[in-house]
Amino acid sequence: MKCITVITTTYNRGYCLHQLYESLKKQEYKKFQWLVIDDGSNDNTKELIQGYIDENSIDIEYHYHQNIGMTASRNIGYELAKTELSVIIDSDDWLESNALNNIIDCWEEKKSDNIAGIIALNQKRDESFDEVKLLPDIKQLKFRDLHDIYRYGKDAKLIYRTDIAKKYPYPTFEGERSFPASFKFRAIDEKYDLVTMNKVVCIVDFNQNGQTFDRIKQYKTNPKGYAFYRNEMMRISKNKRFILKQAIHYISSSFFAKDYMFLFKASKKLYVVSVLPLGIMFHLYIRNTKRRSLKFK
């Protein structure tokens, strides 16, 4: 019986999928499935994956649909997953050589009803393990604590119980294709904790054509979703500094969405009122900047 699903959503990444495939073949732990969700690729992705299936080295399930965006594709991936655990590995990343074994060992040792999954390490392609920032030295925490309390400041890898991940799908908005991944993490925080594992699971290779380098474009082209996200983050957070940042973003995204009733919809109206001038100035900056990345999150 398979215990973990590696979910990969992909769009026209036939040129780099081999890295992930090779890393999966090298895993000592074999009770996993690679679930590939093809978001309407028009390159050689389908033929490539079929070739991998024909090799019969690992268990692969491939699903193709018309382009609907990464957020909706991830929802499909979680819905199709049948194993106890699931982990998202992007199509331009790959697994550390003993990643799945480490995940299963950690889970078997620490799992309980109030634990949603594991938070582990990512490692950049061009850095050594000694350069990777370790997680706080505590047994369990919430995702939000990692950033709001411990100021971790790095992306971590989340491995979730599939049954819990299914309960918190990403919202989708007509005409929009992207939504912040951390929505699921912070929503799950409301009821569950995560156990920590200071071992590398994923080697990340930030692609110049990927979403990581197009934060500003995402911000402008997905305003309804981003405004909804910021409003929800204000609602569930108790960290005043975090709420103020979300309020500024909420104002900016609402203007991009042309939703001028945003104040009446705000989950924490006083915070929004208090930063209204800053939110408008930030909106003007985003609207006119030629930068692609966004550091103010």
Keywords:
single chain; 297 residues; Spore Coat Polysaccharide Biosynthesis Protein SpsA, Chain A; alpha/beta; hexosyltransferase activity; globular
Q: How would you describe what is shown here?
A:
The chain is globular, with a radius of gyration of 19 Å. α10 packs across α13. The chain has two domains: 206 residues, Spore Coat Polysaccharide Biosynthesis Protein SpsA, Chain A, CATH 3.90.550; 75 residues, no CATH class. By secondary structure, the chain is of the alpha/beta class. It has 13 helices and nine strands.
CATH architecture heading of the largest domain: Alpha-Beta Complex
Q: What profile does the largest beta sheet have?
A: 9 strands, mixed
Count of beta strands: 9
Provide the CATH topology of the largest domain: Spore Coat Polysaccharide Biosynthesis Protein SpsA, Chain A
Secondary-structure element string = EHEHEHEEHEEHEHHEHHHHHH
Number of domain units:
2
Shape call: globular
User: What is the CATH superfamily of the largest domain?
Assistant: Spore Coat Polysaccharide Biosynthesis Protein SpsA, Chain A
Which structural category do the helix and sheet elements fall into? alpha/beta
The value of Rg in angstroms is 19 Å
Distance between the amino and carboxyl termini: 41 Å
Please give the count of helices: 13
Task: Give the low-confidence spans.
Answer: none
Percentage of residues in helical conformation: 40-55%
Measured by DSSP, the beta-strand proportion falls in 15-25%
The pLDDT mean sits at: 94
Please write the CATH class name of the largest domain: Alpha Beta
